[in-house]
User: Fold DUF2254 domain-containing protein from Sphingobium xenophagum.
Amino acid sequence: MKARLLRLSNDLRESYWFVPTIMAIAALLLASGMVYVDSHAGSTWMDGMPWLYAARPDGARALLSSIGGSMIGVAGTTFSVTIAAVVYASGQYGPRLLSNFMSDRGNQVTLGTFIATFVYSLTVLRTIRSAGESGASAPAFVPQLALLVALILVLCSIAVLIFFIHHVPMRIHINNVIERIGDRLIEEIDSRFPTYIGEALGERPDNPSVPSAFREDATSAEYERRTPVRSKNIGYIQLIDEGTLLAAAREHDLVIRLQYQSGDFAHNGSVLLEAWPAERCGEDAVKALREAFAVGARRTALQDLRFLIDELVEIAARALSPGVNDPFTANSCLDWLGAAMAELARRDLPSHLRTDEDQALRVIAYPVTFDGFIDRAFGALAQYASADRIAGKRFLEALGDVALSCDDAGRIATLVDQARAFRTLAEGKLDGACRDVVVGRADLLLRALAAPDYKRRLRDDIGWLGGSA
Assistant:
């Protein structure tokens, strides 16, 4: 249930209707409150303010009618401009970036401000009456305080419109788009590592604490004691509620092994996880474990670091396509990918063996490795960047930046493998002087990484660190 609520919360953040609806309801309540205050306080409070004067019914109606008509017109124009900007950006940078623009709070508040002012004006307008309109002896009623609040809302709407005119072009500027994705990627790395499901168990997969049923040499009898928990939905796994998994495993005294991670596609019947032993995994346990997964029609960045990496890779790959040929946009993506991977290189990745408070093994999570992230970021872009001199140099520089944050020999070996593979690709795709420059830069990086003092070699080489395109 918690996973579904978190997914619903994310869907509301990425919708254009939720914030405007809340603001419209607030405007309705505000209008009702102002009219109530006016009906009890009257307009005598204005006598002590010479710069204010009481409006007559006809003037008040004309004012509120003008405000309401203009606000709904501006709201329609604003919505059209927003949709046009979203369509342009998603077509130019990639359809998976649509959710980034849909979740933009500035656009949502702008649309909500105009709609709220419109609703407020209509609500107050219907309360105005002329003398004798409701009866021969009925006095005229004009909510003077409510009219003053309407004017304030108009001024706020004008300020929001000015903000919107500036905000839209800034929002779709490619550098700002890349920056927002890169910032969120680094924030997610910072908040997630080292954050585990339960307590990490610093043991190998073949450690005796892992049930024999989950080992490669498990017998048929041991395999039969594993209960598969299958998906009843089709779509991408958007969220896995770690707390629910751990609590259910502890309550029913189970050990579970995840078969999927956030961002993977599951269909009806896919085995989401396996639980051991089977005799303790009844219907209640299966239901509790299945509810820890939220499945939707698209990937989200809720728990999926790969999705954010893929967004940057997609922008860079489109920029390096022959039809666009914009290596400098690709360079910006490489800069942010390098910064994110450098941040990841300084962190210990969690063990896939997780325990509860009593140090009992409960969850065998999907393994997360530095190699996998590097391949997702740089390996996926190598085929595109290796065919361009400008992007190729920045690709190698980004690998060098990641190496400056690495202290682990295994991670340095991963970067070396990436640099060698990239050098091979560049040799086959580039010609002449372009090939010599990129291959020479790759050789320089490989020689530096082969040295024991590789960080000093990289820092001391001014041509390397300052030799970006």
Q: What stands out?
A: The CA atoms of residues 225 and 279 lie 8 Å apart. The beta strands are 199-200, 227-230, 235-240, 255-258, 265-266, 271-276, 293-296, 353-355, 361-364. The mean pLDDT is 85.
